[in-house]
Amino acid sequence: MFTMLSSKGQLVIPKPMRDALGLSSGMRFHVAIEGNKIILSPSPSPIDSLYGKYSESDFLSELEEEHLSEIKNEE
Fold it and tell me: What is the end-to-end Cα distance of the chain in Å, rounded?
């Protein structure tokens, strides 16, 4: 498959390739040069990498307990 570099330095990744890799508008990429090749690697956002990481934690209850403790200490 071929694509063309625009006058603004932009490339269009063909739709079949975007679909196959699950790429969407606004995604970030790491760009590297290896020999005479340009390597594009999708780079997940920091927020995406945290999704679900703390699903087992109950931060709200912990914050409420801490807040109640502070109120009691002030009295």
Answer: 72
Longest CA pairwise span in the chain (Å): 72
- pTM here is 0.53
**Structural domains counted in the chain:** 1
Give the residue carrying structure tokens 């403790």.
69
Query: Do the domain assignments include residue 2?
Result: no
Contact in structure between 42 and 21 (CB atoms under 8 Å): yes
Res 37: pLDDT: 96
Backbone dihedral angles phi then psi of residue 41, each to the nearest 5 degrees: -125, 125
Measured distance CA(9)–CA(69) in Å, rounded: 58
